[in-house]
Write a structure and sequence with these properties.
6 helices; 50% helix; 198 residues; alpha+beta; single chain; three-stranded mixed β-sheet
């Protein structure tokens, strides 16, 4: 592919469809949050949290194919890991601790749920909290647990028994890694995208 074709591909599919879809869902959920007593209080619970997490996990594998130059069968986990580990050192460390591909990606793709006990949040920060009129923070009705404050990594351990996934934070790191991958591909005199895409 020529540099022009690679640019068009990224503009259309990665920066266009993938980024636009996720940013639209995050923006919608943020528009459904109000500030009460200094806390962000959701008007809706969850939003597109499962769909956002599932998409990001699949897109991680897709971007791994672009990064490694192959979409060959039987290399799904290696494609996923290749890109997941570029999201940052906290992601790479978590991937060494557990098999993120199996527990998160395969769990959500094949079974709808993460293979271990997990909570999926749409927004980073105080999004699964209510603030009472006197400013006391209480758990959202029906939420199995709370994640207090912004996280350094969009995926990890909530406590010893449960995992978490934060769509907004994961997306930020995913988008940064996509831009880095694009710059790396474009710096090659003959940039390529695997011919077996699509």
């Amino acid at each position: 592919m020529s540099a022009t074709e690679v640019k068009q591909y990224f503009d259309d599919y990665i920066f266009g469809f993938i980024f636009a879809d996720l940013e639209r869902e995050i923006a919608f959920v943020k528009s459904q949050v109000e500030i009460v007593g200094g806390f962000r209080v959701p008007k809706i619970i969850g939003g597109s949290n499962f769909l956002g997490a599932l998409g990001l996990l699949c897109y991680t594998e897709f971007m791994g194919g672009i990064l490694t130059g192959s979409f060959s069968r039987g290399r799904d986990k290696s494609r996923f890991d290749a890109f997941f580990n570029t999201l940052g050192p906290d992601y790479e460390a978590f991937n060494r601790r557990i098999n993120v591909y199996k527990v998160f990606r395969c769990g959500m793709v094949h079974e709808y749920f993460v293979k271990k006990s997990a909570v999926i949040y749409m927004l980073d920060g105080q999004v699964n909290q209510w603030a009472t009129s006197d400013g006391v923070v209480a758990a959202v009705s029906g939420a199995p647990s709370m994640l207090i404050g912004p996280v350094q990594c969009g995926i990890g351990m909530l406590d010893e028994a449960r995992y978490y996934f934060v769509v907004e934070r994961y997306y930020k790191d995913f988008a940064d890694a996509c831009r880095t991958a694009y710059a790396k591909i474009m710096s090659n005199p003959n940039p390529t995208i695997p011919s077996d895409v699509g």
